[in-house]
Amino acid sequence: MVSAPHEAMHRIFQKEPGLFSRLPEVLGLELPPLASAEPLTVDLTENEPLERRVDTLLRIETQNDGPFLLIVEAQGKKDPGKTASWPYYVTHLNNKYRLPVLLLVICQDHATAAWAARPLTIGLPQWPTVTTRPLVAGPHNMPVITNVAEARKDLALATLSAITHADNPDVDAILKTMSVALRDTPESIAEPFVELIAQGLGNRPAAQQWRNLVAVDLSFYTSPLSEGIRDEGRVEGRVESRAEDVLLILGARGIEITDATRDKVTTCDDPELLRRWLLRAAIVTTSDEIFGEATPADR
């Protein structure tokens, strides 16, 4: 199953095709000045049962040396199958479009990046017939951007940097920098980057920090992520209020509230269950009776 971080690592190039123009200098690659970039179909399937699909495929125009194709692959872990599929992608696209092909692999950990950077050879050990050399971007060579002005200067590069450094010990500072950089950015521009960072963090602990930053620093945005955070906050608020009401009614009726009852009520996160307990609190004779079988008050 394709994960959210996997999607974020390559989809940012679909959102910002020109992002690659800022990577050669970062990755130590000498290329002619790039003029433009456009997405192409990622489906490489031929008339045979085997389906092959790249993550993102762009046609890059340069100012002096003509166009080339850029394959962007998001790689979350080592995959022996790529030994065959990556050379296939390169040779197939070169044959189909008659253009040079560059393979860029985006990683989020050092081990996967080191594995992906190894040349892939087809042929005899003494004489490789085809050699595929992926260009790899990951935590080993992407800049750690903790300067707000630098992040604002290139939001796409800063977003890719945040995604590739998802496991960096300084990820808190990286994410705070991004939230401040996006704060004064028009919503239509900032929203995709907010979502891509959320996807890129996956289920890591830093994901919750990003949600908190979006809720506070970017609270005025109406992106699916920010709306989801606010919805969660409204639900949590209703739950806390209803739990307090249950205990308030029991106390007002002079019913002793046991420690077990108080703990069970205050730790419950089910609004519907709390509603039933609230109705029962008006008629029970002991606090523990609110947890009993359904009563007419429940209906």
Describe the secondary-structure layout:
Elements: H1 4-15, H2 23-27, E1 34-40, E2 56-62, E3 68-75, H3 82-97, E4 101-107, H4 110-116, E5 120-124, E6 127-132, E7 135-137, H5 148-153, H6 155-164, H7 171-183, H8 187-201, H9 205-216, H10 224-252, H11 259-266, H12 271-281
Parallel strand pairs: 3-4, 4-7
Antiparallel strand pairs: 1-2, 2-3, 5-6
Organism: Streptomyces mutomycini
Protein name: Transposase
Give start-end ranges of low-pLDDT stretches.
294-299
User: How many whole angstroms does the radius of gyration measure?
Assistant: 27 Å
Give the strand order, joined by hyphens, for the main sheet.
1-2-3-4-7
N-to-C SSE string, H for helix and E for strand: HHEEEHEHEEEHHHHHHHH
**Total of domains:** 3
Which structural class should the secondary elements be placed in? alpha/beta
Instruction: Give the termini separation.
Output: 42 Å
Strand content: 5-15%
CATH topology descriptor of the largest domain: Trna Endonuclease, Chain: A, domain 1
The general outline is: elongated
Query: What's the CATH class label of the largest domain?
Result: Alpha Beta
Largest sheet: 5 strands, mixed
Mean pLDDT: 84
Helix content class:
40-55%
